[in-house]
Amino acid sequence: MSFAPVLPAGGLAGWRFLQGAGGTMRAAHAASPAVARPADAFERVAPAAWTSAAITGDRQVRIVALTAFGLAQDADNRAFVDRILAEGAGAPGALANRMGDGRYRALAEGFGFDGAVPRTRDPEQVAAIRARYEAQAFEAAIGGTHPDIRLALSMERELTDLAGRSLSNEGKWFTVLGTPPLRAVFEGALGLPASVGTLDVDRQREIFGQAARRALGTDDLSRFAEAGARDALAERFLVRGAALSGPSPTAPGAVALSILSGLA
């Protein structure tokens, strides 16, 4: 039997409910056949994969790989995904590095097919990708009815990783700007219009930094290594967006959820 996570409310109330019950709900969702079957297939195939074709040739495995990096919408673009994986991210001219969305670079780096030995030959990396898939699948399920909470969950996970990376603060901000879910949360929490995205990227960085200092007291992204700082950002984002209610067919997570549902 499939498990569908249901929240008693949206917005801030739903977010706070997840802080208490989220662990149990995540475990039940990960164990449901619709999520576990593709994940098990991935764990069988990935450790033996020497080429990108081994990942992209099996639809279930391809969906796990893409969902893990927030790219489930590309599940049917097999040739495109194969090129992203095969080229990797080591060369400046690789397709993943030329995409405006940083998640493609993360996908390519996560598998490392451009290296002498793919990263998925490491059991720990395979387990890490599975864990990312389970987290993103849960977020997509929540996002089917509460897209704002889905974004907050994504932010919590992505900022945890980003805060600990050995990048300059400026580099971290450019990562935020190039990661659509993260960017959406900061835009909402800081009250910035999407039209900022039409400006030169350096100017965007200045505007986001200035807005963060005004609203959050700092633009230092390393502070989000602390759970309290991430939660405060999520609450600010959800409170500001409380006037927006109800998902649409194009809401964040809707595409991923429909793809995952088709595997049930």
Low-confidence parts: 246-252
Q: H/E series, N to C? A: HHHHHHHHHHHHHH
Q: Looking at CATH, which topology of the largest domain would you report?
A: AGR_C_984p-like
The count of domains is 2
| The level-1 CATH class of the largest domain | Mainly Alpha
The geometry reads as: globular
How much strand?
under 5%
Please tell me how large the radius of gyration is.
18 Å
Class by SSE composition: mainly alpha
Helix count from the secondary structure assignment: 14
Average pLDDT level:
91
Do you know the CATH architecture of the largest domain?
Orthogonal Bundle
How is the topology of this model organized?
Blueprint: H1 11-31, H2 33-45, H3 52-56, H4 59-68, H5 78-87, H6 95-98, H7 102-111, H8 123-143, H9 147-163, H10 169-177, H11 180-190, H12 201-216, H13 227-240, H14 254-261
How would you describe the overall organization of this protein?
- The protein is mainly α and 264 residues long.
- It has 2 domains: 22-140 and 256-261, AGR C 984p-like (AGR_C_984p-like, Orthogonal Bundle); 147-246.
- The protein has 14 helices and no strands.
- The longest helix is centred in the N-terminal third of the chain and has 21 residues, at 11-31.
- The relative contact order is 0.13.
- The model is unreliable at 246-252 (pLDDT under 50).
Attribute tags:
globular; mainly alpha; 2 domains; 264 residues; AGR-C-984p-like_sf; 0% strand; AGR_C_984p-like; DUF1217
